[in-house]
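User: Let's play a game. I give you a shape written as tokens, and you guess the letters that built it. Ready? Here's round one.
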């Protein structure tokens, strides 16, 4: 009979340890560590994410209660003071690099988006995470309010983040996209709201052969260069070619744009879209912009189900470490779901893993067994591992 560890130990095998150790080496993560290494810190923070622990004391107590099974995950008892010191001292970029290595694995498994066209589809947006200014003085956002901002390039193939940046709450979205190298391959499509309406940046996308879809502002000035196509498709009012007015706007975007007026049946509002894609149907352009709602659902999910609104430390390093470990856990859930073809939702998967985390059973068993069988699996012979 094959010996098997806990569900947690199998989960940890999905994290690329070799690349993690290389990141630790690059950032001197274990320079002064005696026993509580970067890997052990990652295990502890991941445990806190999965089980929803709210404080260092909760983590210490929870791990102590599982002391007989900690050897399965290569962990000893953890003191809250040790964890607090590591969170404040150890470079958070170690966990950021781990996030992107797990992302590489996920991207080879994800299904394609639901549109008929084959172009990769992305949405870009940001969400604010409120902080208490008295406890997080480095995160000043308003006069009496603190916040950080999570910027995300969301891939509709696989419904997961393809790129993330965490900044202070005051940093505007257009500054982030201008300063970042977004991983947008040629012929991909990105949809953004009016907060990203910077024609110089939009033209840089055109030069990279990347298509964009956005909404025009109410004071948008333009000259009509001609009709692109006869309006066709439900809700399409106008479909025309335009060029920008004004010296600076013309200089920022010298090419023609496609302007589409669309009547939204749900709200009764007339929406105006701008795009540099002249091939797709006008109704498809409207549907692409509407699909931006998926990134809002993603932000809502991570705020409700990951520990990224309350933090285990008040320093920049502690906050950033917790956020990046949370996003690593999200990708691990995505990887398991697509690798095993799990039929349930990510929320159901996270609940099953949380309830069986320290049980000695195979990961494939908890993904395929009915709830009434989960209690009996621990005493049955171990099955072959999924990964």
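Assistant: Ready! My guess for every position:
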């Amino acid at each position: 009979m094959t010996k098997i560890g806990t569900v947690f130990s199998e989960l940890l095998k999905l994290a690329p340890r070799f690349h993690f150790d290389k990141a630790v080496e690059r950032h001197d993560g274990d320079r002064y560590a005696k026993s509580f290494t970067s890997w052990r810190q990652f295990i502890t923070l991941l445990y806190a994410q999965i089980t929803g622990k709210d404080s260092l004391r909760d983590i210490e107590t929870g791990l102590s209660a599982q002391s007989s099974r900690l050897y399965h995950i290569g962990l000893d008892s953890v003191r809250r003071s040790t964890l607090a010191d590591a969170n404040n001292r150890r470079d958070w970029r170690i966990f950021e690099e781990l996030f992107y290595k797990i992302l590489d694995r996920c991207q080879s498994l994800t299904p394609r988006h639901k549109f008929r066209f084959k172009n990769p589809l992305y949405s870009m947006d940001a969400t604010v995470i409120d902080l208490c200014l008295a406890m997080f003085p480095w995160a000043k956002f308003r006069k009496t309010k603190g916040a950080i901002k999570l910027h995300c390039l969301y891939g509709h193939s696989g419904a997961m983040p393809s790129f993330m940046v965490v900044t202070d709450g005051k940093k505007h979205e257009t500054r982030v996209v201008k300063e970042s190298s977004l991983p947008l391959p040629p012929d991909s499509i990105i949809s953004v709201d009016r907060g990203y309406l910077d024609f110089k940046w939009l033209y840089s996308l055109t030069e990279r052969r990347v298509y964009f879809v956005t909404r025009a502002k109410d004071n948008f000035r333009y000259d009509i260069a001609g009709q692109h196509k006869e309006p066709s498709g439900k809700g399409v009012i106008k479909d025309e070619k335009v060029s920008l007015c004004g010296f600076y706007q013309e200089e920022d975007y010298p090419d023609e744009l496609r302007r589409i007026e669309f009547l939204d049946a749900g709200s009764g509002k007339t929406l105006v879209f701008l795009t540099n894609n002249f091939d797709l149907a006008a109704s498809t352009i409207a549907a692409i912009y509407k699909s931006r709602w998926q990134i809002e659902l993603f932000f809502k999910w991570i705020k409700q189900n990951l520990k990224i609104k309350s933090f285990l430390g008040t320093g920049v390093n502690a906050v950033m470490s917790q956020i990046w470990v949370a996003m690593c856990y999200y990708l691990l859930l995505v990887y398991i779901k697509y690798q095993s073809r799990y039929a349930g939702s990510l929320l159901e998967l996270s609940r099953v893993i949380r309830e069986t985390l320290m049980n000695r059973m195979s990961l494939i068993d908890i993904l395929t067994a009915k709830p009434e069988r989960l209690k009996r699996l621990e005493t049955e012979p171990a099955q072959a591992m999924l990964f």
